[in-house]
């Protein structure tokens, strides 16, 4: 039997970008009929929101896009680098943090999720400080393009 591929989406607090990316990815693999071949999760670099739910604006965008999603914030741990095939950060700060914390025996390929965006928008900006929901919708659109691009590259 073929082993599962695994992907972990990371952002600063695991309340905006990484949960949107996780929800989008789960939706895409379900639509493609390959969900049983994947282990998917998201996590935070920092501890601020551990145990909480994603930002209500992120959840509102997902609901608006008819995506059912439930997640409790967790922080990345060293074992994630050993257990996941791919760890995707959203911006250069995320990537610098991931590089610093990766153990020597990391098996994970780390990259910007936006590397796979066919429109070339590599950085997925943090919409947290956006007073409305526009940044969350932009994040969603970038995640759709990037996750589809990634899936197309590994299929």
UniProtKB/TrEMBL annotation:
Alphabetical list of SMART domains matching this protein: LMWPc
Ranges that cross the membrane: none
Domain Phosphotyrosine protein phosphatase I, chain residue ranges per copy: 5-153
Gene Ontology molecular-function annotations: acid phosphatase activity; non-membrane spanning protein tyrosine phosphatase activity
Domain of life: Eukaryota
Recorded catalytic activity of this chain's protein: O-phospho-L-tyrosyl-[protein] + H2O = L-tyrosyl-[protein] + phosphate; a phosphate monoester + H2O = an alcohol + phosphate
Catalytic residue positions: 11, 17, 126
Purpose: Acts on tyrosine phosphorylated proteins, low-MW aryl phosphates and natural and synthetic acyl phosphates.
Family the entry assigns: Belongs to the low molecular weight phosphotyrosine protein phosphatase family.
Protein name per Swiss-Prot or TrEMBL: Low molecular weight phosphotyrosine protein phosphatase
Any one GO cellular component localisation term in the record: cytoplasm
Predominant subcellular localization, coarse grouping: cytoplasm
EC number: 3.1.3.2, 3.1.3.48
Subcellular location: Cytoplasm
């Amino acid at each position: 039997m073929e082993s599962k591929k695994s992907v972990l989406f990371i952002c600063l607090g695991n309340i905006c970008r990484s949960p949107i990316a996780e929800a989008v990815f789960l939706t895409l693999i379900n639509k493609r009929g390959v969900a049983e071949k994947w282990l998917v999760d998201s996590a935070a670099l920092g501890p601020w929101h551990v145990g909480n739910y994603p930002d209500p604006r992120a959840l509102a965008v997902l609901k608006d896009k008819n995506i059912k999603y439930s997640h409790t914030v967790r922080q990345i741990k060293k074992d994630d680098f050993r257990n996941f095939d791919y760890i995707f950060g959203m911006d250069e700060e995320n990537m610098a943090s991931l590089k610093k914390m990766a153990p020597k025996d990391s098996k994970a390929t780390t990259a910007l999720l936006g590397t796979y965006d066919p429109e070339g928008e590599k950085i997925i900006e943090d919409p947290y400080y956006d007073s409305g929901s526009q940044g969350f919708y932009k994040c969603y659109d970038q995640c759709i393009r990037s996750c589809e691009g990634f899936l197309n590259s590994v299929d």
